[in-house]
Amino acid sequence: MTTTHRALATALMMTICSTPAIAQSSNASRVLSDAEITKIIAERVDTHRQSVGIVVGVIEPTGRRVVAYGKAAKSDNSPAVDGDTVFEIGSMSKVFTSLLLAAAVQRGEVALADPISEYLPPSVKVPERGRAITLPDLANHTRGPRARI
User: Fold this and answer.
1) Helix 3-17 × helix 34-42 angle, to 10°
2) What CA–CA distance (Å, rounded) separates 97 from 132?
3) Torsion sign, CA atoms 136, 142, 147, 149
4) N or C: which end of the chain has fewer CB within 10 A?
5) pLDDT for position 145
6) Among the listed residues 42, 39, 37, 64, the one whose alpha carbon sits nearest the alpha carbon of residue 53
7) Tens-place pLDDT, residues 91-110
8) What is the DSSP letter of 125?
9) Tens digits of per-residue pLDDT, 33-44?
10) Contacts by 136-144, CB closer than 8 A, 24 or more apart
11) Sign of CA dihedral 79, 85, 86, 89
């Protein structure tokens, strides 16, 4: 797992564990303060070297907030991370893409067999290699049907 993936995984886990429903289920009665979150992520960056920078998003009934610590890269001149830092998410996006697809299928908005061309403007030409590229191909991050050589 790359440093970036660890940073995102840590941020997501902290975000999820900071939500009121999960906090209550683990016998916690409140969401962590910015200072408490900073202490945790600073330890992960400085002591455990699990990342060079971590950004945590917290969503609560009163609103949203962002807590950040560290830098975007190991270099000395790297900028500090903040709520606008772009992280490489890699394979984690497959999970979110698949969840969104499953929700759209449950709502009847799409069908798994639908070719992606149904959802693109007519001017977009989608290549086909034996069959149309489908929504599950996108959710699986595969390139669609393989070419026969």
Assistant:
1) 150
2) 19
3) negative
4) C
5) 58
6) 42
7) 777 788 888 899 999 999 99
8) -
9) 999 999 999 999
10) 136/101, 136/112, 138/97, 138/101, 139/94, 139/97, 139/98, 139/101, 140/94, 140/98, 141/91, 141/93, 141/94, 141/97
11) positive
